[in-house]
Design brief:
Blueprint (H helix, E strand, L loop, with lengths): L1 H10 L5 E7 L3 H12 L3 E7 L7 H10 L3 E7 L1 E2 L4 E2 L2 H11 L2 E5 L18 E5 L11 E5 L1 H8 L11 H8 L3
Helix pairs in contact: 3-4
């Protein structure tokens, strides 16, 4: 959750419209939505049944209809259902429509194939536990150059502790 919180607070400004994929009443996909709304993002839901992955055609329908969407948020796997969303197809749509793509891949990185660059993922979050099998508590975040640029060009600053640019200065650029 910490990695998601940092990523969403850094990528999404208050009032931005964000397409948010939710599987059923999934704990983790609903958590993504609640973090987004806490930081003032406006969630445009694309909801699937709990046991069904989201249909990329539905994502595209919403993107075609709502040109003000800036970002797509999606969990790769909704852990409590085992539902795996087609993030490769959704990433292609994000690229085609010029949207940022933020993926929660905590349960899948290390256990499933995830390719941030080829799938158009701008921010991919995971953690040291679940499929990686390490101890809890270490957030891992992959950020594209395009996403770093979006963060640098915000109209409103992200909170210091939650601002990935703050951490980039100490751990990536140092």
């Amino acid at each position: 959750t910490l990695a998601l919180d940092w990523s969403i607070s850094s990528m999404v400004e208050p009032g931005e419209r964000v397409l948010t994929v939710v599987n059923g009443d999934g704990i983790f996909t609903e958590r993504v939505r609640s973090i987004l709304e806490f930081y003032g993002g406006r969630s445009i839901l694309v909801r699937s049944l709990a046991e069904k992955p989201v249909d990329p055609a539905e994502v595209e329908r919403v993107l075609r209809k709502d040109r003000d969407i800036t970002t797509i948020l999606c969990c790769h796997v909704e852990s409590n259902y085992g539902t795996c969303n087609p993030i490769d197809a959704i990433g292609r749509l994000a690229e085609e429509y010029g949207k940022f793509f933020v993926v929660d891949a905590a349960p899948s990185v290390g256990g499933m194939h995830v390719n941030c660059d080829d799938w158009g993922i701008d921010v991919c979050v995971t953690s040291s536990f679940k499929s990686l099998g390490g101890p809890m508590g270490t957030p891992i975040i992959a950020v594209s150059d395009r996403a770093w640029e979006k963060m640098r060009n915000r109209r409103t600053p992200a909170r210091n502790y939650h601002n990935l640019l703050t951490w980039k200065k100490y751990f990536v650029d140092a």
